Automatic annotation (TrEMBL):
Stretches of the chain forming a coiled coil according to its record: none
Name of the molecule in the record: Nucleotide-binding universal stress protein, UspA family
Originating organism: Maribacter orientalis
InterPro entries: Universal_stress_UspA, UspA
Origin: domain of life: Bacteria
Similarity comment: family membership: Belongs to the universal stress protein A family.
Domain UspA: 1-142
One of the Pfam families matching this protein, by short name: Usp
Length: 278
């Protein structure tokens, strides 16, 4: 059974992310943990003393949780799906880490808002922090992402990392569930010639895919001095519906996702991003 964490602030974007997750994992045995993290000042505890937050604020939070839970329950038509609602107070990232560890979370699903991508995350500005600071797979759902399983997935990689069992297992799961066409994309800034290490890693990935997913994957090599531009062009030109990357390439990853000066970054408003951690 999969354990999936869905942080929520009760916004339309967090609801969109939740609905996407329910549809993507429609036929999978899953426990969905709906987590709302409130500010510590609303918890009734202030440092080492007790404070008394406004009853109106607490009542509003409880009402939102109840309404959100009822909406989710209506969508849980599959007997394999189970719902657990959690309420916590304190530091967002600390609580996410604690929940991932205690509940043995396999995947975090979060929403984003706006053309500036992950910098304007729904839950405060925390989506980018979750991706880079929490060791757990993250599926980022933009506000305008269609609520359908992707038919085409792009896996952007430089072949500089060894594809470990956790990475390959997650990719396999992703492809098994979506039944999508899988496009491995490598962007070279020079002459397109791979190093010996890159060649070995590519061959390893290729052998794995050919053994498990015959005829449903393609390898693409593009030469472009601007890696970000190349990936964005590939996504647009090939009608990619989900972009997958490994968080281990952190510097490159951050440059691509967090540089909001690129006009074409508006693809964040429609294309889900699957971030793999080992």
């Amino acid at each position: 059974m999969k354990h999936i964490l869905l942080p929520t602030d009760f916004s339309a974007n967090s609801w969109n992310a939740l609905e996407y997750a329910l549809r993507f994992f429609k036929n999978e045995s899953c426990t969905f943990y709906i987590l709302h993290i409130g500010e510590l000042k609303y918890s009734g505890v202030n440092s080492n003393s007790f404070a008394f937050p406004s009853k109106k604020i607490l009542a509003t939070i409880k009402k939102n949780i109840d309404l959100f839970s009822m909406r989710v329950e209506r969508l849980l038509v599959h007997q394999k799906h189970h719902l657990i609602v959690l309420q916590e107070y304190g530091n967002f990232i600390d609580i996410i880490r604690k929940t991932v560890y205690e509940k043995k979370i396999d995947l975090i699903v979060m929403g984003t808002k706006g053309t500036s991508g992950l910098r304007t995350a729904v839950v405060g500005s925390n989506t980018g922090d979750v991706i880079t600071k929490v060791i757990c797979n993250v599926l980022v759902i933009p506000e305008n992402a269609p609520l359908t399983k992707p038919k085409k997935i792009a896996f952007a990689t430089d072949y500089n990392i060894f594809y470990t069992h956790p990475i390959l297992n997650t990719l396999s799961d992703q492809l098994r569930i979506s039944k999508a066409n899988f496009n491995v994309l490598n962007v070279s800034q020079a002459n397109g010639i791979l190093t010996c290490t890159q060649e070995k890693n590519k061959e390893y990935l290729q052998d794995y895919l050919e053994e498990i997913f015959v005829g449903t994957h393609n390898f693409h090599n593009v030469t472009n001095k601007n890696i970000k531009e190349a990936i964005l062009n590939f996504v647009g030109e090939n009608q990619i519906e989900m972009l997958t990357m490994v968080a281990k390439n952190l510097n490159f990853f951050q440059q691509l996702l967090f540089d909001t000066t690129i006009e074409k970054l508006s693809f964040h408003t429609t294309i889900p991003i699957f971030v793999l951690h080992e």
